[in-house]
Structure formats: structure tokens, C-alpha cells
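**Reference record**
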Amino acid sequence: MDFGDILDAWDRQTARALGNKRKRAAQQDPPSPKPPDQKRQKNQQKPHPLTAWLQAHEVYDKDAILDAVSERPWERRRRLLHTRADAVIDLHGLNRDEAWKALDLFFLNSKRQGFEKLLIVHGKGNHSGSASVLKQLVQTFIKTCPFAGESGHGHAAAGGTGVTWVLLKNQKNP
């Protein structure tokens, strides 16, 4: 008897054993399913007496409801600081008046569309005579805009002092 004969015998024996198991499983009655009511009763536990009383008297945890509906201001701030801007405006090549009008329109449209974070590209003022004209204009605009909230400069890789990000105020929390 060589190795091939041994493998063939092994395969036949394994196939017979599997066939017998399948036959036995088919001959046995399948387990009767439990009625749906019994399943529900097992899975449901009695509520805590205090919870049952609160539900019966329609008393709800108002703080939990508020937490589920709205985020706290510091959570919103933290989230927005780590997200990308919803809209970007580039003021390069504009004079003061054009830049002011563009910013005014940009902020109005952004607020109307429900944006939360804006990015203003104004440049570093390297080509200005004394100081960055657009950078100062942007800071003045942000101070006077009623829905402009916290602002700051971008990271060095994102433009550094040549860009300013602005978080728009919530309508609920102006």
C-alpha cells in the first residue's frame, strides 16, 4: 500500500463520517421556535422602580435632552478649530473699498448658508509700502461684523499670517 492509497482511504472515511452526520441531523426534528412573546419577555427586564415612577409621571431629564439636541459652546469651538473652513475668499489684488464690499457680501452669504468657519486669504503685505493694508482691513472688518466671532491666523503650512480664519457666531449664542 502506497501513500496515495492511504490518502484515498482517508478521504472515503472522512466523507462517510460527514455523510452520517448530515443524515442524523436531517432525521432529527428541528428545534421548535419559541413563540415571539416568550422571547420578548426574556429580553425585557423590569424597569427600576424610580425609572418607572418618572416615566409614569412624565418627568424627563432635561439636561440629557439638551445634550442630545445641542452641543455646548466649548465643544463647538473645539470641533471648529480642528476642521477645515466651510468657505474661502481671496482678497489679493483688491483695494480697500473692493475688499470691504467683498467681505461684507462673503459674510452675509456664508451666514445665510449656515457656514460655521470661514477662511480669508489677504496676504502678508510683502508688497505694501509700510504695513499690510488688507490684513488691517480684515481685522477691522471682523471687529465690526455682528456675526464674526473668534478669529486667528492659519498654521504656517496654510499661509501663516497671510490668512485669517473666523468662526461665525451661533444664531442662538450671538
Q: What stands out?
A: The mean pLDDT is 78. DSSP finds seven helices and four strands in the chain. The radius of gyration is 35 Å.
